[in-house]
Every structure is written in C-alpha cells, then in structure tokens.
Amino acid sequence: MRQRNYLLALVLLALFAASGVWYFRAFVGPKKPFGIILFVGEGLVTSRLAAARLYDGGANHRLAIDSLSHVALLSTSAADFAVPDSAAAASALACGVKVNHHALGIDPAGRRLVNLLQAAASAHGGRVLRAHGRLPPPPIPGRTTRRLRRAGNHPRERWP
C-alpha cells in the first residue's frame, strides 16, 4: 500500500512537470516580437554619449543606451544645408531620405515621400497604431490661457 502511494505520487509529479513544460513552451516561451518601440534622442551624437559616459563613471562605464539590443545612429543633415531644422530632421528620420532645409516630407525634386507609418500601414492592411482612450486637448500658450481663464470660457472646460 505504501509503495503504491509513492508510485502514484511520483507519476502525478512527473505528469505535473510535463504539463508545466508543455504550458511554458506553448504559451509563455520566447515568441517573436509584436511591436517596435522607437526612441529618438535629438542631438544625441557620439561625442555627447562619450561625455555622459565619462561623467557618469569613467571611460569603461556602460550607459543604459548601451544595454539596448538594437541601436542605430542616424545623421539628419538636410540635402542643401549642414544643420537642419526640425522639419528636415523629422523627414530624414521618418522617410529615410535627406530633404531640403524647411521641407517636410517632400524630396528635393518636389515629390511626396512615403514615411515609416505609411509604409507599415500599407504592408499590414492599414492597422498600425492602436490608441485606447481620448486624446487630450491641444496646449494653449500661457498668455492666451490667462486671458481665457479670466473671461471664464476656457476651452478645456468645453472639451467634449
């Protein structure tokens, strides 16, 4: 009787372990990534990274950015200007093409460029971004906000 109980407990333990291994492989184990998170550090050039590394702990110190699995450094200079404005830099990041200074999403020849989100939407049937909830109201400059609050008709009070 006692050996039978031990044998039954051993069989149940093995069955429990096997079901745990199956569950882990089927539902929890490593899966392919389902999203991409893009960190954009404006003005984050190698000289600033080196200065931050030296300041934080010395030449051999590792920053948090060093632990990311995939890192890319991108030059965003404009096609006709060495130091780009925000529009040209954003176009270079979003479209992968250098544009003229003060141009947004238009190449030097005047053609519209396809950006990263448009390319992803066309590849995935239009579903790229999912947002849950409502967007907050747009910010209002300080002087206008003071005037509107004094008048008692602040737009955020009327926001649906």
Brief account:
The chain is an all-alpha fold and 160 residues long.
| Strand and helix order | HHHHHH
The fraction of residues assigned to DSSP E strands is: under 5%
Average pLDDT figure: 77
Tell me roughly what share of residues is in helical segments: 40-55%
DSSP, total strands: 0
Describe the biggest sheet? none
Question: Which term fits the overall shape?
Answer: elongated
C-alpha termini separation: 73 Å
Cα Rg: 28 Å
Task: Give the low-pLDDT segments.
Answer: 143-151
DSSP summary: helix tally: 6
- The structure class reads mainly alpha
Task: Give your account of this protein's structure.
This protein is mainly alpha-helical and 160 residues long. It has a domain at 74-129. Helix content is 44%, strand content 0%. It contains six helices and no strands. It has helices spanning 2-28, 46-56, 86-95, 116-123, 142-151, 155-158. The longest helix has 27 residues, at 2-28. The protein is elongated. Mean pLDDT is 77; it is low at 143-151.
